[in-house]
Fold this protein.
Amino acid sequence: MSLPEAVEWFEAAREANQEKENPLPSSTKSKSWVDDTLQNLLDMIVQKSKGTNNYISGYRILTDAVKFHSPRRDKEVAEEMYEFLEKGKIIILDLSVGDLTIREKVSKQIADKIFQHSMQKFIDDKVPPNIVVYIEEAHNLIGKEMKLHETWPRLAKEGAKYRIALVYATQEVSSVHPNILSNTENWFVTHLNNENEIKVLAKFYDFEDFSRSLIRAQDVGFARVKTLSSPFVVPVQIDKFDPEQERQRIAQIHKAEAEKVSQNNQAAIQLLRLWAEEGDEQEQKETWEYLSQTLSEDRTSI
């Protein structure tokens, strides 16, 4: 059945169900085949209200949401995203454009789906995947007016139990939900230019000691860091990330590890040689020959 044919069929079904004396029968006795949910959908298709047939917006009310959909998708986006997360994939969701209401609903829907899926795996005695949710401009999504039972506060408070980490970045500490702030374990604070934001931040740990410098100091990369493993806030100068330097650093680590393995192998060979020279038993010689041959073939295996 094509789309136009389906529309024509449902329009005819709605028209037939309009007859008060003989509505479309249901398999359930004394009930109509067209329930309230289906009736509302049929009204949206024909853009007419039930009974009066007055004009309504109908399906056109969804026009603003068209840009957030694609004909190439065959499943709910939140379900698809969770499947990728289970495989260890990185997902970037750009919600910087579009209607604010739709952006909020989409973000909550996805966050709720991630939370519910991981919680269900935990309940089923399965190990949920490690997931990190990172939110940029967090004050636009996790405002302080949210209820505690809503998704974002629950994710911040209970997410760790289901192996979900929440990382958020904001310039407005006062706009973030208090429950989320209270459950934040690691803080990286650079510069704030507002006394009100400083007052809110000063309520946590010993950030009050850094109130003046947070307003005055604007050095790039200079942060006040509080981590779960440290009892105090520590000033830290963070270097700019340089991919080439990072590659060189990793290469040096691998080189140092290889040299250490080589030294350990040489020491083992020397020890075995001395051990073999000191004894005359046939068993020692056979053992020495076997180990010497093995080390010569693959010295990095020890």
